[in-house]
Amino acid sequence: EKQQQTPTAEGSSRAAVELKLAVEAATAAVATPRPTVDAARHAVDPRLLAFEFAASIVLRPAQHALVEHFVAAERDRHGVVMQMLMGQGKTTVVAPLLALRFADGDRLVTAVAPRPLVEMTRAVYREQFAAPIFSRPVLTLDVQRTTRVDATLVAKLTFARDARAVVVAAPSSVKAFVLKFVELHHASVHDALERAGAMATRSRVEKFMFGGGGGGAALSTRADKAFRDRAEHRAAELGHYVEAFALLRRGVALLDEVDLLLHPLKSELNWPLGTREPLDFTEPSQGSTAGAGTTQHAGARWRLPFFLIDAVLVAAGAPTGLAGAADAADLAGQSKPRRDLADAVARGFASHVLQAVPHVVLLDRGFYDAELAPLLADLVVAKFLGPEGALDGGGGTSSRISTADAKAYVASGLSRGTADDDDAAASKTLARRATDAQLKYLNLARAWLGTYLPWVLSKINRVSYGTLAPSELRPREPRGRRFLAVPFAGKDKPTEASEFSNPEITIGLTILALRFEGLRDTAVRAVLVGLRDDFAQEHGPPEKRPAAVRYRELVESAGGRVRAAPSTSSKKKTRLTATDRQPTSSAADRVFLSEPRDDDERDLWSKVWPLASLDVRDAQVVGTLHRLLTSAPKVVARYVDAHAFPETLIYRSLKLSASGQALGGDLLFESRLGFSGTPNDLLPVELGDAAQYAVGDDAAILATLSDPTVVDLWRLAADDEAASWSPSTLLDAVAREGRYHALIDAGALVTGLGDNEAVARALLERLPAAFKAVCYLDVADRKMVVARGSASDDVDAEASLPVPLEAAGVARDARFTFYDQAHCTGMDIKQPTICRAVATVSKDTTFRDFAQAAYRMRGIGKGQRVTVALIPEVERLIVGASAGGSPGSSSSSTTTDKELGDLAAFLYRNGFATESAQFRLLAAQTAANCWRKSAFRELLNGGASEKVDRPACVDVFTEAIDLAVPTTTEHDVDVLRDLEKAVERRARWLRDDPGARGVVDAVLAQARAEHPATAGDEAAALEDEKEEEAEKENEQEQEQEQKQEQ
Asked: pTM of whole model > 0.70?
């Protein structure tokens, strides 16, 4: 029942506590020295006084000291990173003050903030600069791969400089601006080579046809004009670029939340280049196959991971997506390997090493290696590699691989330390006997079992990855982003223009996303159209054609039945499952994977149209079938195998890349000033050897978050049931308490309930009547509010349309706030002076994440408190990390210092887990930045001159991509060795720059001393979730068509 009471302060009365806090604040304000007044000189700083007046604040000494430190650093033209506690005014006071000091009509100020904070940052500057005493514009810099650097952009930046405006930008826009310059030169080099090649071809043709030397051949007038026009356009764009670069270069960059902006694992931007080629091991080989005379290579790159993922999901209780297998009993879970795997998964749920909500999530890699991987190795060898012919090889007995050898090899990739001598000898023997095709199969299975499968199973759908919903698709969305899983910046927050760069990760996460989310209507329609096209090309009785048989199988796998069609289920089955059960006399008795909307639809699903009479142009028919088939795993298998993967897994062999070095280094901005409440030392060298920490701030954060009077723990489940909680029950519990004013979902536990507005409405329905509205962040990062209808406590859709927070007119005491995971850093929404928030944590939450989330309560420790909600799975991980008692155990209603200490230790350990990978990548990025700066400046200073080796300059920013499945048994990944090779290859760019050479030598020395190559480099590399900037394919295709016409 909803409690009909106003939330009250705990302990003493609210009024008494608020009075006490007000007195303390007034006393501190009177006693604190005014930094605007120089008592010794009897002088005041009118600039600071004007800012205090316009912002209605009193400047604090710490804020003033930070501003002066930044001013001194900028005067010396070097970068610096400073720490300031969350909630102390970095974004609202320090940054606007710096903008006022530096935007003087001679320099341009660019404020860079993480993408989710761009809207809030822009609003803060506009609010501060709206006062007539300042009245400065606030502009936005948005640069993408398709952006043209033209006179308009130059004019915009010039106006911003002259008007003393502030330009707000996301980090991807700044990195895209850098890459744009290199891409223009790359296009010029490519055109020059293409022109020379076309002329040489024409010369050879003329020589063959007419004799003679053929040396005077020239291009046609049309082709020559096209080349010259493109060259002129690029030259003009390069000229505008140089002007825009000069404006940004001379200015100052203010980097907010610098630890996020420059995170080595999350700051890399890649643009694919080169010709499109099908992904290796996806097409039938010509002449040599795994099985003699077969073409089973087709789609092997995705069919093997689908088999493994399907095995895990089936063991967890889901229906299978495999079709056409000879061993029906095996797919029904009746074989011993399947039963053993199901038992292992059940043990994982019971011991909380597997998480069941919102779906199967792997929490403990040790459990996977010991319990799941050996069983999966047996399955993949016996039920996939064997039927594929991968063990026979087609080369006679000499190339036949025994089942035992295959199992031992594919299991050798598990994280059990360095391979022993027996493993090495077995690998060498296998390399001599096996064909290339066999080695590809075995290496693919080994990589998936040892690296990719546990990694993708540890990620949460719609938090780390997901497919784009129709409402999230942009106009002319690239094909890869339409069909495949894309990276997410947070819960229900897909990245704007990125794709995963690792094809195995793309394949695995796409399969999982479609299994968990279901198929979009366009995907179901593609499957139906494909079956209809196949049906039209086939012969024989309509109901017996292969396409019609496949269609019936898909419909029956979802619980439906095709009209007047016999069942395709195996007659030899010993048991029928819910997914392939035949219809009884009543449609109401049927079990569907999806829930029909009404009885009419239930009846319709029990007598679906035959394929021969199916009208795929009828939206109503397709819609009905979409609702039936959307959750059917066999339909997912058909979609990815026949449509999604063949049409999108086409990769390029090269890429242009830019990392956080382009933002934090001095390649673009001459002066860079960074600040954060939770900085770290993994920074570009141009920002200093380490962040300059505020004395005592880290200790203050830890002390506050380890204080039981400020933070307490709340177990969401008191028993050991695996599925004892859900996002809905979490909202129920938070609302039922009636004493919380905010839910800070740092752990991204609130999933599967829709977007943030849907979550806000769900909360409003559950909250006591005293809460009149719920505030949330929408897809555009705006603070929005949904409020109750005036006549009822229930939410009225028409009366409670979302409105901006500033226009809602709801008192803080009567408002609840929902912070989704993407907005748990930097977001500022004012809360009541005395209130309590619930914060969630997950298996991956770090102390930095938790601190940022907890400090959304700006008065934490001063009237505001935080309750940490622990799900059983995370509680087990904390206990395992601390080897102590259970945090928040039911034996005590109070939280102890030790329990909060254990929580902090667990969160710190999560942060430490990726620091080695961060360092290795930062070392590579730092070294690459040295030679890239030299090449960039050479292009900038004389890119159009023949004296400049433009191909060599462009090559410095280009990286080759090898996505082929290896045909060797050597698998060591040594990042340090790769770095040493890169330094050797780029030595010419360091020859004339002793400073750069010294930086590279220092990086190499530190890498050798502190981080030697380890066997875990391969797995750690996956944590570098590099993202490729997706391409606007339509524009590129148009350009290619124009070239073909020439």
From this structure: yes
